[in-house]
Amino acid sequence: MANTKSALKSIKKSTRNYIRNRSNKSAVRTIYKRCVNSIAEYTDDTASKVQHQLNFTYSKLDKAVKQGIYHKNKAARKKAQLARLLKLKLNN
């Protein structure tokens, strides 16, 4: 147990941030999976929907980096993976 007032505040703060980061990270993962699924189901009819989903996912990844939830290289890697998936789908 914490002995000082500042240690108690620090514990409260870290717990609050942990909960916030966990929920935001979960939301980003869900959005990422939705984007992967929409790319997998890509057709000419759904092209605009897929592009919108891709832009939305990129935005959420960038915001997660800005909030300190993800490292910038992880977000860049995830965006590159999505772009690679879309490119493979378009070439087939």
UniProtKB/TrEMBL annotation:
InterPro entries reported for this sequence: Ribosomal_bS20 (IPR002583), Ribosomal_bS20_sf (IPR036510)
Primary localization class, coarse: plastid
UniProt KW keywords: Chloroplast, Plastid, Ribonucleoprotein, Ribosomal protein, RNA-binding, rRNA-binding
Subcellular location(s) per record: Plastid, Chloroplast
Record keyword Plastid present: yes
GO term, biological process aspect, one: translation
One annotated GO molecular function: small ribosomal subunit rRNA binding
GO CC entries: chloroplast; small ribosomal subunit
Pfam families linked to this entry: Ribosomal_S20p
Signal peptide coordinates: none
Function (record text): Binds directly to 16S ribosomal RNA.
UniProt family annotation: Belongs to the bacterial ribosomal protein bS20 family.
Name this protein carries in UniProt: Small ribosomal subunit protein bS20c
Native organism: Haptophyceae sp. NIES-3900
Chain's gene name: rps20
